[in-house]
Amino acid sequence: MKKTLFILLASLFITSCGDGYIIDKNNVYYIIKPTSFAEHGGHGCKILLKNADADSFEELEVGYGKDKSNVYLKGKLIKNADPETFEIIDFVNENSYGDKNYSKDKNYVFFYGKQIQNANAKTFQIPKEKQ
After folding, report:
1. HEC states along the chain?
2. Which residues contact 131 (CB under 8 A, 6 or more apart)?
3. CB-neighbour burial class of residue 60 (10 A; exposed 0-12, middle 13-18, buried 19+)
């Protein structure tokens, strides 16, 4: 009963506040709220994360989530990302309140969930034109 109530409240919260993840007993879903933005074609939908582990899944921030084996951005798998060492790189510049499009793990650097070729995760810094 408590879990059903939690799922219902989580669903209401997500549909009122924006996109996000929902975890039920066995599955993880990414919910896209109906919107007029072209990125989603103006339609909302529910995406099943096929191989996500519901027991270990945790929602991070701004569309990121991870489980014991994988990392996701807006419901899409970030290939080769290590969930144990994954982190979102946050920076602020004069043109925005903050940008969380960069992320990294112990091996790779990602931009919008895509691996940046030849970027060194240990020494990576946000490119100057982005700051």
Report:
1. CHHHHHHHHHHHHHHHHCCEEEECCCCEEEEECCCCCHHHCCCCEEEECCCCCCCCCEECCCCEEECCCCEEECCEECCCCCCCCCEEEEECCCCCCCEEEEEECCCCEEECCEECCCCCCCCCCCCHHHC
2. 91, 93
3. middle
**Which tens digit of pLDDT belongs to each residue from 71-96?**
999 999 999 999 999 999 876 555 55
Measured in residues, the chain has a length of 131
How many angstroms separate the CA atoms of 80 and 129, rounded? 27
Which pLDDT belongs to residue 35?
64
Tokens of 43: 């339609």
- On average, the pLDDT of the chain sits at 80
